[in-house]
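Cross-posting from the chemistry board since nobody answered there.

I work mostly on the small-molecule side, so proteins are not my area. We synthesized zinc ion and want a rough idea of how it might sit in this target. Sequence and SMILES are below. Is it possible to get a predicted 3D structure of the two together?
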Amino acid sequence: MIISKRAGNWYISFKYDEGPTPTAKQGDIIGVDVGINALATCSDGTTYANVKAYKQAKKRLSRYQRRVKKKELGSKNRAKAIKKLARLHKKVADIRADALHKLTTWASFKPQHHSDRKLECKWNAEKAVRPRDDDSSLAERAPRDHKLASAIADCGFYEFKRQLSYKCECYGSQLVIAPRFYPSSQICSQCGHQQKMPLHKRTYECSNCGFEADRDFNAAINLKNYVNQ
Ligand SMILES: [Zn+2]
């Protein structure tokens, strides 16, 4: 059990054991596309939207930061403004952590009751983003593409992967991360044809077989199929 104090609030955290409730078998593998518009799109059709409260709180954050700067150094008002800012900082971090934990718990838990227990996931490396060889934190990349302003983008792929890894282990699921340059958004999940997909295109329209689907959903199915290749 850990008791801690952050930004004037007390927190208690502890572990408890609770057996999972079995769910109906839906599929062996689940593909998760971690994206730009949505927090995540899954091959079973589940989507996790970016948290609105998070966006709003972040806007307020820059306003509070400006306020602190305007106050006189060493003044009581400045101290007050700093305290307010610290509290909001914590709130933003809490909203982000909550969204991320909900997603990673769901994603790692989901395949547990299925025979194969595989979770396929890939960080969405789009062409607009300068390619990197490693899975380094997205925080480094975010300023180059403002569209990546999601809770995951702010904490970095590293934290997302860290949570997924330990939760998958805990639930007995297998985590597979596709290589960064695997073109999950360019491949047609129905016929395998590959075509260019500029960032603004939200719908995948296959020029070969005519298949149409939401861009991220198509990518999630490709990631699901990737494991079987
Ligand atoms: Zn096709």
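Reply from a structural biologist on the board:
Welcome over. Reading the output above for you: The chain is about 35% helix and 15% strand. The chain has one domain: 2-8+27-226. Happy to explain the token format if needed.
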